[in-house]
Amino acid sequence: SSQTLRVDLGDRSYDIVIGSGLLAGCGEAIRAVSRGKRAFIVTDDNVAPHYLDIVRTSLEQAGMRVDHAIMPAGEQAKSWDNLGRLLDAMLAVRSERKTMVVALGGGVIGDLAGFAASILLRGVDFVQVPTTLLSQVDSSVGGKTGINVTQGKNLVGTFYQPRLVLADTAVLRTLPVREVLAGYAEVAKYGLIDDPHLWDWLESGGGAAIARLDEQALQRAILASCTAKARVVASDERESGVRALLNLGHTFGHALEAEGGYGGPLLHGEAVAVGMVMAFDLSVAMGLCPPADAARVRAHLAAVGLPVVPPQVNGQPMNAERLLAHMASDKKVSDGKVTFVLAHGIGQSILCRDVDPPQVLQVLQQAV
Ligand code: NAD
Ligand code: ZN
């Protein structure tokens, strides 16, 4: 069984299809949204051995000619060098304006292939076939593409919507458990932002079911997450206002990631988990949120196996002052002010631009 969610963006509207075993029939679905009969699959060297053949075969059976590129797995793939190599490979096989780019992989491949598609021949269509939980619930929806540069992560890119997203839950079986949980942090995030029912379900067994890759639980969580993100994105496609709520846990999380360094101790979703706990602690400290809600956040994330305190780096606790400094230099800062996503409680997030740095520092000092 599969479920379809329509993302409403006028003439750039598209479907998100969620189900188990979608890859085997992906060719017909992709052909149906293609303007021509050519596909270019972009994937990475972890995903390719598992899924490249299934996708290629399905596309060929649907009558498409298929080329592909296999990028090195990992965040480093999102670089100028790899973007250049990818565009060269696409042009070397004489890709056309009607070529469909197929992003087969996690968020890294989605961001890189989407960016390449947006600038190849001034823009060719692309579809997302996300293969990590994080990419299925977050990065494949919203239309942000991009790469990392020396100055920081995701600083060069485009807003570019896919023609279709195919989220096949069966592919999560080959994903390392740690990566599954990192994606789960973003699912929990949607509950904390504005969906207390989702949170209650996660807490009362939904989260545990997702962690053991129960099909129905996965579908429900992905559908709820994509619905939540699509709703916010549709009302604020280019991130001026409410879209910032999606950054719950991310201001703290990015500081933790920056302090840990590239390939550091925390995956992005793990840093977001710790960051959400900190955001709730700060909300409590500011008298906005009942302590019991912050306690529930901490307890549930810990129960599914996510970190809830900053890790040590080289045997040392992280430095609270340096974490604060990272937050002040986040790219989301405007007019020298950090926008915090805080909460009145579970499912009641708010944006707040008047936060006292000493109060943030206190929360950081208590956490490390
Ligand atoms: P990822 O793409 O690096 O995938 C994680 C790891 O799992 C990689 O080693 C990958 O090779 C492997 N993998 C992927 N699918 C697999 C499968 N089915 N079986 C086995 N291994 C598999 O990481 P991610 O967490 O999916 O994405 C992170 C990236 O997403 C970051 O670059 C981040 O900036 C980006 N992102 C973008 C947005 C957006 O809106 N565009 C939102 C959130 C995150
Ligand atoms: Zn995130």
Could you outline the blueprint of secondary structure elements for this entry?
Layout (H helix, E strand, L loop, with lengths): L1 E6 L6 E6 L6 H7 L5 E7 L3 H14 L3 E7 L8 H13 L7 E6 L1 H13 L6 E5 L2 H7 L7 E3 L2 E5 L7 E5 L8 H18 L1 H16 L3 H21 L14 H11 L7 H18 L5 H14 L15 H9 L11 E4 L5 E4 L4 H11 L1
Parallel strand pairs: 2-9, 3-4, 3-5, 5-6
Antiparallel strand pairs: 1-2, 7-8, 10-11
Helix pairs in contact: 1-2, 3-4, 5-6, 5-8, 6-7, 6-8, 6-10, 7-8, 9-10, 9-12, 10-11, 10-13, 12-13
The chain binds nicotinamide-adenine-dinucleotide (NAD) and zinc ion.
Nicotinamide-adenine-dinucleotide binds next to helix 4 and helix 5.
Summary of the model, kept short:
It is built from 13 helices and eleven strands. It has 368 residues and is of the alpha/beta class.
Q: What do we call the CATH homologous superfamily of the largest domain?
A: Dehydroquinate synthase-like - alpha domain
Query: How much helix is in the residues?
Result: 40-55%
Q: In CATH's first tier, which class of the largest domain applies? A: Mainly Alpha
Radius of gyration: 20 Å
* Shape category: globular
Query: Structural class given helices, strands, pairing?
Result: alpha/beta
